[in-house]
Specification:
The protein is built from 29 helices and no strands. By secondary structure, it is mainly alpha-helical. α19 packs antiparallel against α20.
Length: about 700
């Protein structure tokens, strides 16, 4: 039972009829108020009538009376499904009543309080246009129908003049932000051009061309849009170009636009040949319109979108605005009724053999023959409409083809440390135009980082100003592009930072080490940089093995080598030298044991490049700061202080959650954290290296 006071629910069929009547009466109200609006009525009454109608149309938008697609059921309300035929009749002709009615509708649309409300009305209007089905047909009948719909838009919405910014914003958002057919693209361009024979609105076409090029040349559109969207935007661009005269300044500016030239390269690099030809077609047509010569000479055949490209090229040789307008009645009489179909017989819809299929009988003698793997046959799936993916060999050929690298920017070698930091860690906050070259930028930065940092060590304050930023970038850098020797190059760069600028780099690394955002490998690299950089500053020999050998793990999880291994071996050697016998006794022992050596000619071994670099690093390029001066202040004390603060915070967190169940308790010694066994062992080993290198410091005894 219905509760007291509740309104009865309107049936869906009655609801559709109700809103159809409301929409029809709204259009009648507009037609009645339009003459009064232009006959010099008082300003107050004019304002009230416009405001009331705008409010009514806004309410109709909110209740869904302006759908983005024609309704498929009678219960669905649609303003233009109920009134568009009437609006067509009122806008037909050239008398004063038509001009009054048209101007009043244009004023109502421009008075909408929200641009989204205006976009909803325009999208519903565009979807209810009576456009032909043959999208690339260039016959006079189809061109006349396109011009008829364009004139309807011009009289109902208004001319797309350059000064109407609000209208342009709404129109371009609907035209370029939604999916339309290619026939709609022809209608939109004809509307912008003015839909008049012999005259073209170049200013409006220039605005439409600029907005279309922004979408067409966008890297996201080139890479991710579907084929239907590509063809729609490409035809919109080609049709706009065809309306502009060859001497247009807009076309000449577009030819030399860097963004347009770069987008042509992106289209040519596309793996789908159908989409690739969209860019080639636009490049050829624009060059032809501006008196230049360009021919890709690959348009014969019907595969890979060649037929569509030829049809689009033939369509743009003429403009729809120069055709004669064709009425809907003439279009239906000459082209046949749209949507009407000849009656079909039920037998025509049936496939032979479906009603009474042949049922083969299976005997026991055939069972063994059927039950065999050799008799299995795969299902025959229908061929896909998508372009097949390229094979690995085709990808290698495409990668090696020099013609597909047109306009590709080459990464320049950084000269300053600020450029190096920007390549590793962008701080601008803006998207780069060449984001697809991030891998090349990282590879170049890692290749030159060590050399550039050491070269800048003795020049002014450039290294001190950029050291902290380089530490943040190198520590947080991820191997997303599988760069060769990524860990080794990053390690040497961090070692150079610590060795050449310990006052800035070492505290920054220690500060980052105790943050919870890094993995165990990144923490090992930070500790290695502190240990190896400290040994280099102190003038101690560096390990012959690669720096990343410190973080290699055995299958049981025990490190193969630790940073403290070198100092341990050095201590053993010193102990052995202290316990050696006196020189006289050792000489007498050698005289008894060794036989006198004969004179021999030996080959002089030339030092290799690594040995020379090591010698240079210890002589001419030796750091100006002695490790004994910075060991306690920049290495040992910050590391100890930060560790005890971190340990105190972790114990406090564990104490706060100790009363909870085991699932929700906080544990500071989890896998990959600082207090885990491998990381803590590496931390203590690094502290041992730092203490050993600082044994000559004044604070050593303390």
């Amino acid at each position: 039972m219905r509760s007291r006071g509740a309104s009865p629910r309107r049936p869906s069929s009655r609801r559709g009829a109700y809103f159809a009547g409301v929409c029809a009466r709204t259009e009648v109200l507009v037609a009645q108020l339009a003459p009064k609006h232009t006959k010099g009525a008082s300003c107050v009454s004019v304002f009230e009538s416009v405001a009331s109608l705008v409010y009514l149309l806004s309410k109709l938008v909110n209740v869904g009376a302006f759908p983005s697609a024609p309704p498929t059921a009678p219960s669905q309300p649609s303003f233009f499904a109920s009134t568009l035929d009437t609006i067509r009749g009122r806008l037909a002709g050239d008398d004063a009543c038509v001009a009054t009615y048209s101007a009043f509708w244009s004023e109502l649309l421009l008075a909408m309080p929200s641009i989204f409300t205006l976009q909803s009305i325009l999208a519903s209007l565009f979807s209810h246009l009576s456009v032909p089905k043959a999208e690339l047909d260039g016959s006079p009948l189809v061109r006349g129908a396109v011009k008829r719909e364009a004139q309807l838009l011009g009289r109902f919405v208004g001319k797309l003049e350059k000064g109407k910014k609000d209208l342009w914003d709404a129109v371009t958002a609907v035209i370029l932000g939604r999916n339309w057919t290619q026939m709609h693209a022809r209608v939109f361009v004809c509307w912008a051009a003015g839909a008049q024979k012999g005259s073209v609105d170049e200013d409006a076409l220039g605005v439409l061309l600029a907005n279309t090029v922004d979408i067409w040349s966008s890297p996201d559109h080139v890479r991710h849009s579907l084929l239907a969207k590509h063809r729609y935007v490409t035809l919109l661009l080609l049709t706009t170009i065809s309306y502009l005269p060859p001497s247009s300044a807009t076309l000449n500016a577009l030819v030399f636009s860097p963004r347009f030239v770069q987008s042509i390269s992106q289209y040519i690099e596309h793996l789908d040949p159908v989409i690739r030809r969209c860019g080639m077609l636009v490049a050829e047509e624009l060059a032809r319109r501006t008196g230049k010569k360009l021919d890709f000479d690959d348009w014969e055949g019907d595969d890979d979108g060649k037929a569509w490209a030829r049809a689009a090229r033939a369509l743009t040789t003429e403009t729809d605005a120069n055709a004669e307008v064709v009425s809907r009645e003439a279009e239906l009489s000459e082209g046949g009724q749209e949507g009407a179909a000849a009656p079909l017989d039920v037998e025509d819809l049936l496939t032979e053999g479906i009603i009474e299929p042949n049922k083969p009988t299976l005997t026991l003698a055939d069972a063994d023959a059927v039950d065999s793997d050799d008799e299995l046959v795969g299902y025959a799936f229908p061929s896909s409409s998508r372009t097949p993916s390229p094979t690995p060999s085709e990808l290698r050929e495409i990668e090696a083809d020099p013609t597909l690298r047109v306009g590709k920017m080459k990464i320049a070698r950084p000269v300053y440390l600020a450029q190096l930091g920007e390549m590793i860690r962008s701080t601008s906050g803006l998207k780069s135009e060449y984001e697809n070259q991030e891998a090349d930028k990282h590879e170049m930065a890692l290749a030159v980082a060590d050399e550039l940092i050491r070269r800048k060590a003795g020049y002014g304050t450039e290294l001190e100003e950029n050291a902290v930023n380089l530490v943040y970038g190198l520590v947080g850098l991820q191997d997303n592009y599988e760069i060769e020797d990524f860990s080794g190059k990053r390690q040497t760069a961090l070692n150079a930072l610590v060795a050449c600028c310990p006052e800035k780099a070492a505290p920054a690394i220690i500060e980052e080490f105790f943050k919870n955002q890094y993995s165990s490998e990144q923490r090992f690299i930070m500790l290695n940089a502190l240990a190896l950089g400290a040994r280099e500053i102190a003038g101690l020999p560096l390990p012959a093995a690669a720096p990343q050998a410190f973080i290699l793990q055995e299958p049981d999880g025990v490190p193969q080598q630790t940073p403290a291994a070198g100092p341990a071996r050095q201590t053993i050697e010193n102990t052995r030298e202290n316990n050696a016998p006196p020189p006289t006794l050792a000489r007498e022992r050698r005289l008894h044991v060794q036989s006198p050596s004969k004179s021999k000619i030996t080959e002089v071994q030339r030092p290799n490049a690594d040995d020379l670099a090591q010698q240079l690093r210890g002589t001419s390029l030796a750091p100006k700061v002695q490790f004994t001066e910075v060991a306690v202040e920049c290495f040992i004390c910050p590391l100890l202080n930060r560790f005890w603060l971190f340990l105190r915070d972790e114990q406090t967190r564990e104490a706060r959650t100790a009363q909870r169940d085991s699932l929700h308790r906080y544990r500071g010694a989890g896998a990959g954290l600082i207090l885990s066994a491998p990381v803590l062992a590496h931390l203590l080993a690094t502290l041992g290296v730092l203490a050993h290198a600082a044994r000559n410091a004044p604070a050593w005894l303390a």
